[in-house]
Amino acid sequence: MGTFDHTRVIAIANHKGGVGKTTTVVNLADAFGRSGLKVLVVDMDPQANASLHIGKMHPSRVDLSCAQLLLAAGVDKLPQAVHEDTYLENVSLIYGSLALGRVEEELKDQTPRPSEELRTKLETADGIYDVILIDCPPSLKLLTSNAMAAATHIIVPVESGSQYGLYGAEDLLKHIEKIKRINPTLALLGALLVRHDERQTVCKLLEVTARETFGKILPVRISTSTKVNQAAVMQSSLHKLDRSAKVSREYRELADGLIATLGLKPAPAEEEVENG
């Protein structure tokens, strides 16, 4: 069984949709990249929103997407699947595609260890990238299992402003424990409260419950902002769109905290010469 000795692999997972998984992947990737870290985003979602956000090609035009990579024989296809030209500095991408929706059954039929194909493929990238971020689909099926089996760490975005934000959290935690049988060193970094407004009672109550449920909450809360959708439409990070916005500062603070927690070594800071 292989492990990642040098690269931190973070799965951003929650089987609920619309909780900020892709937004978190994109903006952490951007912040890590601007810090001088070499980043790879792996889009495991058939909706391919991360690919549409940061990729310069449409996912349907990509020859070797995450779907083909998972099903490929051997471990030598990874370089062909990685696209270094994205809208984010120091960030490469393995595209998602609609074909991922059909991959789960094929993995069951074609591979002896259907949950471990992504890890097998990504192990060849250990030491090439500082951080690999995996955007998971909104399910606990085989694609998410592959992401968790490949990951060194996991972050669970939770919609703070929703009374249903923690619905199914116990199922998610049970699934993480199940994956630990094949990936025993997988570490939960914590729940990430998204669309959080500390003035609202529902957010305060959910924060307490989330801490009890997951055992830990990441110290930065992400606020609600219309700029999240604006950034996606403009294929921009929040930092590039409006670096002074509260939500931009929060993602930068989250990235800085993770750099310290994970022992990452960013490049020396340089003066930024970008618009905005």
From TrEMBL:
Pfam families documented for this protein: AAA_31
Source species, domain of life: Bacteria
Gene3D superfamilies tied to this protein: P-loop containing nucleotide triphosphate hydrolases
Domain annotation AAA: ranges: 8-186
InterPro entries (alphabetical): AAA_dom (IPR025669), DNA_Partitioning_ATPase (IPR050678), P-loop_NTPase (IPR027417)
PANTHER family on file: P-LOOP CONTAINING NUCLEOSIDE TRIPHOSPHATE HYDROLASE, PARA FAMILY PROTEIN CT_582
Protein name: AAA family ATPase
